[in-house]
Amino acid sequence: MEAESLKINEGMLTGESDAVEKITDPIEDEVGLGDRKNMVFSSSLVVNGRGTLVVTATGEKAEIGKIAEMIETAESKQTPLQRKLDSFSKKLGMAILLICILIFSVQVSRIWFSGADVDMTKAVLDALMFSVAIAVAAIPEALQSIVTIVLSVGTNKMAKQHAIIRRLPAVETLGSTSVICTDKTGTLTQNKMTVTETFLPGIENPFSNEKWSKSEQLLIQTAALCNDSYINEDKNEIGDPTEIALILLADKQKQPYKELREKYKRDAELPFDSERKMMSTVHEINEERMMLIKGGPDVMLDKAAFILVDGEEKELTSEWLDKLHDQNEEYSKQALRVLAFAYKKVDQDQQITLEDEKDFVMIGFTAMMDPPRDAVYGSIEEAKKAGIKPVMITGDHKTTAEAIGIQIGLMEESDVAVTGKELDNMSEQELDDMLEKISVYARVSPENKIRIVKAWQRKNQITAMTGDGVNDAPALKQADIGIGMGSGTDVAKDSAAMILTDDNFVSIVKAVSVGRTVFDNIKKSIAYLFAGNLGGAIIAIMFAVIMNWANPFTALQLLFINLVNDSLPAIALGMEKSEPDVMKRKPQKIDEGIFAGGTLKSVIIRGFLIGIAVIVSHYIGLQHSEEMGVAMAFTTLILSRTLQTFPARSNVQTVFGAGFFQNKYVLGAVGIGFVLYTITILPFARDVFHIPAEFGWNQWLIAFGLAVGSVVLMEIVKKIRNK
């Protein structure tokens, strides 16, 4: 109803820190939240002026209440790895159950139809134990703990990249991300207004010469003196961001604003007013009393009568006026914030009034913006090479957002920018059709943000969302991975799975690289476990069943290998460095299996080679006795599975290509594996692990040679496959 210079900070709702000046005039068109200048919202902060209001909504019907409701109803999702492991576990369980039933049936049938005089109860129990042994050997019992440990290692690596993980599975989710919806202010940009352009009539490159003209000197003096901002003793910048940019310009040009203010004291002032859009101060400069003025270019040009051209005062002709208007328009097209500067000589005893703000001398313009972070350009390019689509979502104006998007390479030629109002007018089908072409969303509401995230998720894209305000919280929770800002609100952080301590887009891309490496390493660990289980449990045991040989392993031996010997190498693979192409390949598809990307082939090849080595060793041992066959099969399996750690380090590089000594954890795990095996053949443990006294160096060397041979063949096959 009333608004007297009423300015309100609505950052909690819109994400934009600039205060909004409120008006009482009706707004006829349907506009977004950030453009409802005749409305005041709960939880926003009054920073200036006064007003009288009519309450139109409270509680859950208020804008802040709607956000709280959206946070409650936003869906938390399983990570891609959780979905893949759940699906795979069900299939694995069914497959192993069928194999166990088949083997049990075959063994019982042989006993039943053989006609031999045997104890049927004991024979059936032996067949059952044999089947159970296969299940024990086939299922990687330590898988869950290994995955957890590898993810934990990833959190430590991400912390070094300024990314704090709040929910462990988020490490892997970030590596599978295909869309990053990011805020502009402070994430892509520096969150600091900076003067990027200066226009002084008659001077081609201002401040390029050591000796300044009168125009250059007056511009810096006006920027620093007609200004209320300052930097306190704690180096905190106090005041309007636009004015802070001006005093930083003075400091940059080696004209410290503090020295200028000390030298030229302020005698009088006309504070900034939103109606006249200018500010004036009076100072004694070079023995002349001068009124220094800054304000919006359009208002200033209407009231100016003269112009300073390379230090010389001239009449402001229509020709010069056109040049100034054209320059202002050019800056505006680049989404730059433009300020005009002027001066006017006044009498020594004159008391200045608003009537004096006319017929002044135009000095020139400064154009400023919140510039992109230096490293953002390379990060955007790297993200695109990695198959990730960066999308800017901001509460800022469309022109500004679009200009930044083009400047940093986020927007391609065919891409478009859309406002929150335009998004509201789209149907779900229209949004789905246009979604992949939209790279910038401007003037968006919290509802818009959550709708954008859901639209990408409908296309089976793993979506990351950044945010720092209360308005971002619903979308952060809805996204596959919400990324809160370290400088953001507690509500945003609580809704996020990861927090960036430096609020930097560059850190997100680096964290994606770590996430992909973690996911690769989890797959390597899983492939390592299943290749060993395939060779020992499926191939070797089933071959023994088909050939009617004795069981090559005892249940205790298999449990020892699965739970004790295999765990350390699998964890060590989780410490592996990144593959060379980690940020050059497309993200994992959401419906892609855990063994996609050549992993299944590696498991089959390595498992088959291990199985062949174990079968040959078992056969050689059986020529002596069943006990010797078991001992040799066990020795070959444990040695080949331990040595398999080296080829498991990469599906692309050989052990030497990856750097034999690069992963010291692998060397340590293999060494410990050999020590653990040595314990099983010590005299006091031989009976427990069914190792006969006759098992000696000859048998061990045969088993070791077969294990080494299988590993060498794995590397040869890998080299051939990747040619």
UniProtKB/TrEMBL annotation:
Listed transmembrane segments: 92-113, 128-151, 526-549, 603-622, 665-685, 697-717
Chain ranges of the Cation-transporting P-type ATPase C-terminal domain: 551-720
Keyword Heme: no
PROSITE patterns: ATPASE_E1_E2 (PS00154)
Keywords: ATP-binding, Ion transport, Magnesium, Membrane, Metal-binding, Nucleotide-binding, Phosphoprotein, Translocase, Transmembrane, Transmembrane helix, Transport
Ranges where the P-type ATPase A domain occurs: 3-72
InterPro entries: ATPase_P-typ_cation-transptr_C, ATPase_P-typ_cyto_dom_N, ATPase_P-typ_P_site, ATPase_P-typ_TM_dom_sf, ATPase_P-typ_transduc_dom_A_sf, ATPase_P-type_domA, HAD-like_sf, HAD_sf
Main location: membrane
Keyword Chloroplast appears in the UniProt entry: no
GO molecular function: ATP binding; ATP hydrolysis activity; metal ion binding; P-type calcium transporter activity
Subcellular localization: Membrane
A Gene Ontology term for the protein's cellular component: plasma membrane
Membrane topology qualifier: Multi-pass membrane protein
Gene3D superfamilies: Calcium-transporting ATPase, cytoplasmic domain N, Calcium-transporting ATPase, cytoplasmic transduction domain A, Calcium-transporting ATPase, transmembrane domain, HAD superfamily/HAD-like
Pfam families tied to this protein: Cation_ATPase, Cation_ATPase_C, E1-E2_ATPase, Hydrolase_3
Cited SUPFAM superfamilies: Calcium ATPase, transduction domain A, Calcium ATPase, transmembrane domain M, HAD-like, Metal cation-transporting ATPase, ATP-binding domain N
Protein name from the UniProt record: Cation-transporting ATPase
Organism field: Gracilibacillus boraciitolerans JCM 21714
